């Protein structure tokens, strides 16, 4: 059986729901359908989730809630009308939102969670009603009853391990299950939501729970491209890649998936396929545990800006057992996670994302490194970009680093950092932000244009 | 004024002491002379320090001490005889060793220290007597009286900060001070020695204490070469390099200096010159705090084997604040210092020296990483070599990494690890041991042969 997840654009309008229905109907193994809230119909449109955030803010601050509630309901009403679903489901949805507005407002975060989750929940009810109207046997599934159990507030939300056992019974259902993404419930029945984009996680959890043959993730692109199509003209499509490649690409700019979304599927080695609701015939991109190496050593190239480096030097640093650990402890005290730690003999740099820093944190870090670690020099530089070459075949390709560094040299850019050697599937370059685009283009040319590659 | 340190080969024979005397006489600013124990006169010869270790072992284990003591005394006697110094100094030296043999044997390490230190101490007395006999006004300096104070047993030996103040009075002496290297005394008057090669440290401490204009380190090579002359034919001489370059080169195979030796000189920015006792006219290699960049971006290339990598992978590792710190804590618990930590997205490697590992440590580390850090995969690989390109001019040379990786690709070898980006003066490659030599040769050709370079 297959678990299919449809993203916001796939549920944005009646026309889109018809495409979803056709996709579900075309393959009887598509038995579990996870849905997002209705997304944008056009570029300037507002997602239902954003309308719901507005509604919850209005309710919490004592402002008028009629207008934002109307905006939300209009989206559902319009879809129901155009699909000829009648008033029953619309009333059901409206009552649901009114019920949510009565929730306890003393925890603003939990109150907002209640409203936001309504986007997905009612999207699921609407799709179930539509499939039913088409004569397909489909049930809306309540995550509380189905057993999608989350840990308790206020810890960072995560799924509890026993959820998988409970959710596995969905496998036995004869009918098609329509499951709202994005939220679950604590043991005590309190609703909590994942981070934004969390419907991908719900789909991944369900795929793992029912041990699906495939987790199909429907979005609005045909596939994952080997490089950002906004920068590289007509990049090639990636037909297949491994989880590791996906993760390494996602690190710097490939935002197809929410960061943690693939974890449950990864743990059960369930293949994932990224497909296009608007063009379901396209093969899409398969993400698998292992794949045969292609002739091309590089699978994709990603690039992202917004990195800083914390540079620390101290004479005889590398004789000092515990130096690195103490430095990382200082970062941990500031709740900072880091990306890389390139090191010389008496110095090291910590590469981290700019959003991890603030003037206060920077000042405290610099002070502590200088005084507690007695560093000779410590400073922070911003304006870095990371460019990452990813490919399972890279590790044993002699001369690959030479081709990459040659290509970068051709652009006239300086390489600030190189990190290779752990993952075996990636080669990371730190460059100055203003060099990022030209480097990405030249690397793409080197590894993917027909003249240069294999 | 200048502080001069002479190594073991410079004091191995009467002929060598004559060279030392000529060097001291040639420049009146050479006022403080630090000496090692007599070293090897020929390839199969035994250093006096090794004879003294034998002597101390014999004394501690109740074996015959006459023969090893004879061997030691013969070395000093022969030098004294050939320099026509008469019996007085020989008797002084013999009494000194006999006195040392009466030391308290209950601490075998301290007992051995007493005997080993006699090598340098009596070398200093002999040189002072010889310079005196030449009409040069020279005094043997007792480190206890001069105030070279060390921390207490059993902590790792290091100089106490107030030593510098006490030793600074040597600057005022009219006569030439002959100072034995390698040892000092605790506040309570207990003798302790530095690690082997520690006379370099004594010289560096004295240079810092008297704020010398130059610290001349006399050895048996004309200079430091840009690459190991045992592997590269006729490598060029390095005329000048910075402390940083020296440190980075020393890291992988350039063993001109004891690791910590330059620290005191470095802190006072005292220039260091490596010179040849057997060819004092050669300019030698200057080690300075800062230098003008030469046209050549690379100053030297070193290579060393004996490295291992500890590889750890865990899905979503880089979202987990504290992961790296916990890993380093496990290594710290095993008293292991590491060299580099190249990292991918969900994995990292720790590069460390093989001698830091043992089967027991490896097993404990693997077990803890697997279970405490819940790693998906962890393993250790040996047989790595590190090849390091060093040069102050490297950082801003566009295309340098490309030239280096091209050169390595020409050898057909695979690059296992690249680390660049912190030090700005080095580029480190991890390669398999069996590829080390050919890579070193090719990199030398690329950056130093007249055809290729600048």
From TrEMBL, chains A, B:
ACT domain ranges (all copies): 389-454
Gene Ontology molecular function terms on file: aspartate kinase activity
Organism superkingdom: Bacteria
Entries under InterPro entries matching the protein: AceGlu_kinase-like_sf, ACT-like_dom_sf, ACT_Aspartokinase, ACT_dom, Asp/Glu/Uridylate_kinase, Asp_kin_monofn, Asp_kinase, AsparK_Bifunc_asparK/hSer_DH
EC number: 2.7.2.4
Reactions it catalyzes: L-aspartate + ATP = 4-phospho-L-aspartate + ADP
SUPFAM superfamilies reported in the protein's UniProt record: ACT-like, Carbamate kinase-like
One Pfam family in the UniProt entry: ACT_9
Keyword entries, A-Z: Amino-acid biosynthesis, ATP-binding, Diaminopimelate biosynthesis, Kinase, Lysine biosynthesis, Nucleotide-binding, Transferase
Pathway recorded for this protein: Amino-acid biosynthesis; L-threonine biosynthesis; L-threonine from L-aspartate: step 1/5; Amino-acid biosynthesis; L-lysine biosynthesis via DAP pathway; (S)-tetrahydrodipicolinate from L-aspartate: step 1/4; Amino-acid biosynthesis; L-methionine biosynthesis via de novo pathway; L-homoserine from L-aspartate: step 1/3
Family according to the record: Belongs to the aspartokinase family.
NCBIfam families: asp_kinases, PRK09034.1
Function per UniProt: Catalyzes the phosphorylation of the beta-carboxyl group of aspartic acid with ATP to yield 4-phospho-L-aspartate, which is involved in the branched biosynthetic pathway leading to the biosynthesis of amino acids threonine, isoleucine and methionine.
Name listed for the protein in its UniProt record: Aspartokinase
């Amino acid at each position: 059986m297959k678990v299919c997840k449809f993203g916001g654009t796939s549920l944005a309008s009646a026309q889109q729901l018809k495409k979803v229905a056709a996709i579900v109907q075309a393959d009887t193994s598509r038995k579990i359908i996870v849905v997002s809230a209705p997304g944008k119909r056009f570029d300037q449109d507002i997602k239902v989730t954003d309308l719901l955030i507005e509604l919850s803010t209005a309710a919490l601050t004592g402002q008028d809630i009629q207008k934002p509630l109307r905006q939300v309901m209009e989206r559902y009403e319009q879809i129901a009308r155009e699909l000829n679903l009648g008033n029953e489901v619309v009333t059901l949805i409206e009552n649901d939102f009114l019920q949510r507005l009565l929730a306890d407002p003393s925890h603003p975060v939990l109150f907002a969670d209640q409203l936001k989750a309504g986007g997905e929940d009612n999207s699921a009810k609407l799709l179930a009603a539509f499939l039913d109207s088409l004569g397909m046997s489909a049930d809306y599934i309540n995550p509380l009853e189905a057993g999608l159990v989350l840990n308790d507030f206020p810890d960072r939300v995560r799924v509890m391990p026993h959820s998988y056992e409970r959710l596995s019974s969905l496998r036995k259902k004869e009918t098609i299950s329509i499951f709202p993404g994005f939220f679950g419930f604590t043991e005590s029945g309190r609703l909590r939501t994942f981070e934004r984009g969390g419907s991908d996680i719900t789909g991944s959890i369900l795929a793992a729970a029912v041990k699906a043959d495939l987790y199909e993730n429907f979005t609005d692109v045909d596939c994952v491209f080997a490089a950002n199509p906004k920068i590289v003209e007509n990049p090639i499509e990636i037909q297949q890649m491994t989880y590791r490649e996906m993760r390494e690409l996602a690190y710097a700019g490939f935002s197809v998936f929410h960061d943690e979304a693939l974890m449950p599927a990864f743990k059960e080695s369930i293949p994932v396929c990224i497909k296009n609701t608007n063009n379901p015939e396209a093969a899409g991109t398969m993400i698998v545990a292992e794949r045969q190496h292609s002739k091309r050593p590089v699978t994709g190239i990603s690039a992202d800006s917004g990195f800083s480096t914390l540079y620390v030097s101290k004479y005889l640093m590398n004789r000092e057992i515990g130096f690195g650990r103490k430095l990382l402890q200082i970062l941990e005290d500031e709740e900072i996670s880091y990306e890389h730690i390139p090191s010389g003999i008496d110095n090291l740099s910590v590469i981290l994302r700019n959003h991890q820093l603030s003037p206060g944190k920077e000042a405290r870090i610099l002070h502590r490194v200088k005084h507690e670690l007695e560093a000779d020099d410590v400073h922070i530089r911003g304006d870095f970009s990371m460019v990452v070459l990813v490919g399972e075949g890279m590790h044993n390709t002699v001369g690959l680093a030479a081709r990459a560094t040659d290509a970068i040299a051709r652009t006239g850019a300086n390489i600030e950092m190189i990190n290779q050697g752990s993952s075996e599937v990636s080669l990371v370059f730190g460059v100055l932000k203003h060099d990022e685009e030209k480097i990405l283009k030249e690397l793409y040319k080197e590894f993917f244009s027909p003249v240069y590659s294999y």
